[in-house]
Design a protein that fits this description.
Elements (H helix, E strand, L loop, with lengths): L7 H25 L11 E6 L6 H9 L4 E5 L3 H6 L5 H16 L45 H7 L6 H8 L3 E6 L9 H5 L5 E7 L2 H10 L5 H8 L9 H21 L10 E5 H6 L1 H12 L5 H11 L18 H4 L3 H4 L2 H10 L1 H7 L7 H5 L9 H6 L1 H7 L1
Parallel strand pairs: 1-3, 1-4, 2-3, 4-5
Helix pairs in contact: 10-17
This protein binds 2-acetamido-2-deoxy-beta-D-glucopyranose (2 copies).
Length: 394
């Protein structure tokens, strides 16, 4: 007679327990396996889509300094400067494919645009990326501290781009800033790619402030202007207004595409931000952007953001491409006292549609332009509300 014979009720219980264990284990297995429900493996890809002189370097730093972010500034600069064929339209797909590879941490795509023996320093504005100054790319700056571009550029260069790829793989968020997209459609394949979890933050700025800022470093734009206007080597009259017109049109195109009858895969993946709102209320706006892409705000980041948006100085030519401590809200009004009213009128003509869509009031006289207490920014709530009739009408 076996001593430990089990009665039928105990057997049933054991069978049930075993079944439950199998179900549980299978569940874990599915979650852990690479073919599980999150093909982007939880990684988030963020495109900061903006235009020249629209505060995108600052926004880039807001992401670059975050400890969970791998950031690169304008990788498509390499496409535009290396490929001689002019015309933003012709370069569109090369830019798009480069962005996709970089989001996937595949930097081999860069080799087409670089010298044969390249270093990390061959990447455009590489030292603006905190991740390239931190482990595993470089031992200089711990991942949760703020990087210093000067020190980073002196101490963090390395041969080849393997270290950059390794660094890229080690972050939960890959953020790229680009000023070279003029429409959303070329990004559709990326938005539908199951290996990417793409969010687009579209940063816009008052075109009058953009022109004022572009004039301060006009030479830097000669080449890019020719590509925007697809004009080859022949300079055309009124270049700056025509470039502004193209930029304004692109903002309208992008914003309307994303908000009026957007395709399903765009839903919840597009956020428009006005530079002026960001400098008036940096913490609120930046918090909202972090939330949109699933990043946590930290106390040191809050402090850093406050410091860089409330410093002194109006911004000189020398620091045109740098982020410095200055009162960003003042700088965003500087055009009103320094830009000739004739110019303001022409910009308002070529950017009329974009200005009314994005909530920038026009001025009718020089007097109005210089009356700084007159607020030209339509409050966000109002211009968002004004959207509703258009949305439902379409
Ligand atoms: C890369 O760095 C090496 C030294 O580490 C230097 O000799 C070489 O010129 C650099 N190449 C480029 C393309 O900057
Ligand atoms: C960055 O480092 C340089 C050189 O060490 C130093 O002179 C500069 O003040 C630092 N900048 C900041 C913002 O800390």
């Amino acid at each position: 007679m076996p001593r430990c014979r089990l009665g039928p009720p105990t057997m049933v219980l054991l069978v049930i327990l075993q079944g439950a264990a199998v179900v549980l284990l299978f569940g874990w297995y599915v979650q852990l396996s690479p073919c599980g429900p999150t093909p982007s493996q939880g990684k988030v890809h963020v495109l900061l889509l903006s235009s020249w002189r629209s505060g995108s370097s600052f926004l880039g730093q807001v992401f670059s300094q975050h400890p969970s972010v791998f950031y690169l500034m304008e990788p498509a600069w390499h496409v535009w400067t290396k490929l001689k064929m002019p015309g933003a339209r012709a370069l569109r797909m090369a830019v798009r494919d480069l962005i996709r590879s970089v989001f996937q941490c595949d930097l081999s795509v860069m080799e087409a645009y670089m010298p044969e023996h390249h270093n990390v320093s061959s990447l455009f504005m590489w030292s603006h990326s905190r991740a390239l100054c931190s482990p595993p790319a470089c031992s200089l700056t711990p991942r949760n501290q703020f990087s210093n571009q000067t020190e980073c550029s002196q101490r963090c260069d390395a041969t080849g781009l393997q270290g950059v790829e390794e660094a890229c793989h080690s972050y939960s968020h890959v953020v790229l800033k680009e000023v070279r997209f003029f429409e959303l459609e070329s990004l559709y394949p990326l938005l539908q790619d199951p290996s990417l979890d793409l969010r687009v933050i579209h940063l816009v700025r008052d075109p009058r402030a953009v022109v004022r800022s572009r004039e301060q470093s006009a030479k830097a734009f000669i080449r890019d202007n020719a590509i925007v206007l697809d004009q080859g080597d022949t300079p055309v009259a009124d270049t700056q207004y025509r470039v502004m017109q193209e930029i304004c049109r692109s903002h309208v195109r992008i914003h309307e595409r994303a908000t009026l009858k957007p395709p399903g895969f765009l839903k919840g993946r597009y956020k428009m931000v006005r530079y002026e709102d960001m400098v008036r209320d940096p913490l609120i706006e930046i918090n909202a952007m972090y939330e949109f892409v699933g990043l946590e705000m930290t106390a040191p980041l809050q402090e850093w953001i406050y410091k860089v948006t409330h410093g002194k100085g109006k911004g000189s030519k020398k620091e045109a491409f740098q982020i410095t401590s200055r009162n960003a809200a003042d700088v965003s009004q500087a055009w009103r006292t320094t830009l000739a009213h004739d110019k303001v009128k022409r910009i308002q003509e070529v950017c009329k549609g974009a200005m009314s869509l994005l909530g920038y009031r026009t001025v009718d006289s020089e007097k109005e332009q210089k009356r700084l207490e007159l607020d030209l920014l339509v409050p966000r709530e109002r211009y968002q509300f004004s959207w509703l009739p258009a949305k439902t009408a379409s």
